[in-house]
């Protein structure tokens, strides 16, 4: 009895059976904890395993402290509990191994994921297993992409070619250095020194044109036709931009030149060659109430030198002209290269001014030299390649000032167009009268007016 009481006191009042039952209960709790650990990350499992091992060790130590060493049956039972703890640790180690294998499998699957180009191809090209709707969408995309490339690549090539031509032109412009102090004799028979470098490169050189403050700054050549230099640059290399050329029928010699020098230049999309000339016409219509006419006001004078003379030219008119007979009248402004008589000159100028969008304060008379600049123009929707823009200027006379009263410039209220414009743009409106003040044509007198049934405006106008 004494022995039994002593054991109960040492074990805190717990019998051996109660201690074993308590160990079994804690082992069951550990098993439940293991089941709940499913889905926990490997790191979490390791932490739980450490905690469980610590708890099991503590429990074993506690039990060992409360069991008498001489009670062999109790020791055997506690040894069984230790074996259970060892099994628990083995189970936890196995769980950790399985988690590591799962992570390795996931990593392998990620590594085996198809590369970007393979996935891109599958996303664009019809593939086995695609449904009908997806195949149709892919085919539409492929066709659209091919069409895009077919248009974008040539366009990009053209733009790059234009910029290349621009760089070539800039290099050429640096070769022509105008010496303002050079005194050129009135009847000079010698080629001006400023042209010698250009002539060494291209013997077809006949002049140089420049409009201050614009990209118009080019040598002028003259070939054996009006086609070659549309597609060849100053160096005679093939070029989309071509170069500025004079009508091959014009004459430039030491003894003089044609009465109407006609120059042609492309209207390039990047703003080079004769593209700036469009601003003359555009700024006549940049406001419905009060057009600015800003480009003309800023550039009323053009510089054009021939091989034998330096000269400035005052702009007196500009307009657009039809070149397609199917659309109405074709007025051949570029076919009159010389004037055979005063009437011939007067008639040409009157026809030009009836078609000019602007009336300037510049006067004209028979014997004046005329300069015509011609380029492509697209003033109306649907006009296509059927319209040309022409700028007309006359040479500043000897002793005449180069100043122009640009504030006196006005728009032509009744511009003479062609039938297509009347039908498609003007709503049936047709030209019916000439409104240019022919007093500006100094070689046109009262007898001419009477013959033409024309009445001069009142002198106070």
From TrEMBL:
Domain of life the protein comes from: Bacteria
Gene3D superfamilies hit by this protein: Sortase
Molecular function via GO: hydrolase activity
Segments crossing the lipid bilayer: 139-163
Renumbered residue ranges of the record's region Disordered: 34-62, 82-102
This protein's UniProt keywords: Hydrolase, Membrane, Transmembrane, Transmembrane helix
CDD domains in alphabetical order: Sortase_B
Active site: 266 (proton donor/acceptor), 376 (acyl-thioester intermediate)
Pfam families: Sortase
Protein name: Sortase (Surface protein transpeptidase)
Organism: [Eubacterium] siraeum
């Amino acid at each position: 009895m004494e022995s039994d009481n002593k054991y109960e006191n040492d074990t805190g009042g717990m019998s051996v059976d109660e201690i074993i039952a308590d160990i079994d209960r804690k082992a069951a709790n550990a098993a439940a904890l293991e089941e709940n650990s499913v889905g926990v990350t490997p790191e979490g499992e390791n932490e739980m395993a450490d905690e469980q091992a610590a708890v099991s060790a503590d429990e074993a130590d506690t039990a060992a402290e409360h069991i008498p060493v001489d009670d062999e049956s109790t020791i055997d039972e506690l040894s069984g509990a230790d074996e259970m703890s060892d099994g628990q640790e083995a189970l936890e180690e196995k769980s950790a191994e399985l988690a590591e294998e799962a992570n390795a499998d996931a990593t392998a699957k990620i590594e085996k994921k198809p590369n970007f180009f393979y996935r891109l191809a599958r996303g664009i090209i019809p593939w086995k297993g695609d449904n009908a709707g997806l195949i149709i969408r892919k085919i539409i995309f492929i066709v659209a992409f091919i069409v895009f490339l077919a248009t974008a690549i040539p366009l990009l090539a053209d733009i790059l070619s234009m910029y290349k031509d621009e760089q070539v032109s800039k290099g050429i412009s640096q070769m022509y250095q105008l010496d303002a102090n050079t005194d050129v004799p009135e009847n000079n028979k010698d080629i001006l020194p400023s042209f010698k470098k250009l002539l060494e490169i291209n013997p077809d050189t006949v002049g140089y044109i420049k409009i201050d403050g614009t990209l118009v700054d080019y040598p002028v050549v003259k070939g054996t036709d009006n086609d070659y230099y549309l597609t060849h640059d100053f160096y005679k290399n093939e070029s989309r931009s071509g170069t500025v050329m004079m009508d091959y029928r014009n004459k430039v010699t030491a003894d003089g030149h044609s009465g109407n020098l006609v120059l042609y230049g492309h209207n390039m999309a990047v703003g080079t060659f004769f593209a700036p000339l469009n601003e003359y016409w555009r700024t006549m219509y940049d406001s419905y109430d009060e057009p600015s006419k800003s480009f003309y006001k800023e550039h009323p004078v053009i510089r054009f030198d021939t091989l034998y003379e330096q000269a400035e030219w005052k702009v007196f008119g500009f307009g657009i002209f039809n070149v397609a007979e199917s659309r109405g009248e074709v007025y051949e402004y570029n076919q009159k290269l010389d004037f055979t008589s005063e009437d011939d000159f007067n008639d040409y100028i009157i026809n030009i001014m009836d078609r000019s969008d602007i009336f300037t304060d510049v006067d004209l008379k028979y014997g004046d030299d005329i300069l015509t600049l011609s380029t492509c123009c697209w003033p109306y929707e649907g006009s296509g390649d059927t319209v040309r823009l022409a700028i007309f200027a006359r040479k500043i006379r000897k002793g005449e000032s180069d100043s122009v009263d640009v504030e006196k410039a006005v728009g032509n209220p009744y511009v003479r167009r062609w039938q297509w414009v009347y039908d498609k743009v003007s709503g049936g409106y047709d030209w019916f009268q000439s409104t240019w003040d022919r007093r500006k044509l100094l070689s046109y007198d009262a007898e001419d007016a009477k013959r033409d049934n024309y009445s001069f405006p009142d002198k106070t106008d």
